[in-house]
Amino acid sequence: MIELRTPAEIKQMRPAGRFVADVLAQTAAAAHVGVNLLELDALAHDLIRRRGAESCYIDYHPSFGASPFGKVICTSVNDAVLHGLPHDYRLQDGDLLTLDFAASVDGWVADSAVSLVVGTPRDEDLRLIDTTRRALTAGIEAAQPGGRIGDISAAIAAVAHAEGYSINTQFGGHGVGRTMHGDPHISNDGRAGRGYPLRPGLVVAIEPWFLETTDEIYTDRDGWTLRSADGSRGAHSEHTVAITDDGPLVLTAP
Question: What single-letter DSSP state applies at residue 195?
């Protein structure tokens, strides 16, 4: 079911958006060479406790997950692009790291993701990350009242295709509200003018993610982490966005 939020409810969602943005900023700043992924998860967990927020991940067990997630932040490294389960791994120079975080504050959820390079970057990684960021910006700009979900999808795809990246459509954006994942689904590829109408009050997570040389993924043995089929690297950018009468409002802006 797709739910529309009142202006008052969107205002109530803003603290969750600010909190998610702050946690991502602090965990990204802590992601140095030699830092363990479990340390980043512990930092995010501590920030949740101090804020009195609730994790959207720790007990999360959808049909595609092998078990409850058990951690509070997704840490995807190099060929991992989505749902990276934190484990005993120390970041190395040049690693491409994606941090994806969602939490509930006062009953409202926000969801966001960033990709970054730890230490010395490769030009290919910076290009990939920049493409996801520009695709996210394009998708947000297309999220105008009176438009359609397909407008967002087409805007994201145009940026990816212009850079020569193919697009996996198994996972994409989604509705956000009292829970982390809801309707409508927002594919990262689609046709403008198609799909559910973009009405004021609709709140969605827009999340372009691309792999360097493939659009095929597989699930790691941990039952969660999604990796590229050919070992190429992936990047992911995401914001929670409310459709308003005045246009898109980014709730997870830093």
Answer: S
Q: Give the whole-angstrom CA distance, residue 3 versus residue 145.
A: 15
Q: Which burial class, exposed, middle or buried, applies to 246 when counting CB atoms under 10 A from its CB (0-12, 13-18, 19+)? A: exposed
Under 8 Å between Cβ of 30 and 40: yes
Alpha helices in 110-209 (DSSP H): 123-141, 149-162
Quick check: 103 and 110 in contact, CB under 8 A?
yes
SS (H, E, C) 239-253: EEEEEECCEEEECCC
Distance CA 249, CA 37 (A): 32
Give residue-wise pLDDT tens across range 28-38: 999 999 999 99
| 174-196 pLDDT tens trace | 999 999 999 999 999 999 999 99
Q: What is the pLDDT of residues 79-103, one digit of tens each?
A: 999 999 999 999 999 999 999 999 9
Residue 84 to residue 179: CA distance in whole angstroms: 20
Using the CB atoms, write b or e for 87-119: b if 16+ within 10 Å: beeebeeebbbbbbbbbbbeebbbbbbbbbbbe
Output the pLDDT for position 67.
93
> Phi, psi at residue 131, to the nearest 5°?
-65, -40
Single pTM value for the model: 0.97
